[in-house]
Amino acid sequence: MVLVTELKKQGNKLVMSLGYSHPVEMEAPEGITFDLTDANHIVVRGIDKELVGQVANEVRNVHQKYIEEKVLNMLLNILDVRKVKQVRNNSKLRLN
After folding, report:
1. Which of 33, 41, 78, 96 could form a disulfide with 37 if both were Cys (CB 3.0 to 4.6 A apart)?
2. Rounded CA gap, 22 and 42, in Å?
3. Rounded alpha-carbon distances, angstroms, from residue 5 to 12, 13, 19, 59, 94
4. What would you measure as the largest C-alpha separation in the chain, in angstroms?
5. Secondary-structure breakdown of the chain: helix, strand, coil percentages, each rounded to the nearest 5
6. Which 3 state secondary structure label does DSSP give 17?
């Protein structure tokens, strides 16, 4: 499962392509900067330790929400497949 397909920094914005139909943009508050060390790592920097932690948590929450939606959709697809198989099996029994 690919969690982040692309990370970009545009000015003071962090742009994440998470698999939604649109990229997710997060603007850095004053005193905070985003650094991309490589394709999968975001570094949040700033002087105010509390604000750095808060912004990092917001980035994690956006990412976590995407992961939860992805897992939920996978589970729903599995359940749908099982229901389809169950309906097929039941319909075969009825026809015979």
Report:
1. 41
2. 20
3. 20, 17, 7, 15, 47
4. 74
5. 50, 30, 25
6. strand
Dihedral of the alpha carbons of 67, 73, 77, 80, in degrees to the nearest 10: 140
Q: What is the CA radius of gyration of the chain?
A: 21
Any residues with CB less than 8 A from the CB of 80 and at least 6 apart, and which? none
**pTM above the 0.90 mark?**
no
Tokens (6 digits) for 68: 């939860």
Would you state the pLDDT for residue 95? 43
Q: Which residue has the higher pLDDT, 50 or 90?
A: 50
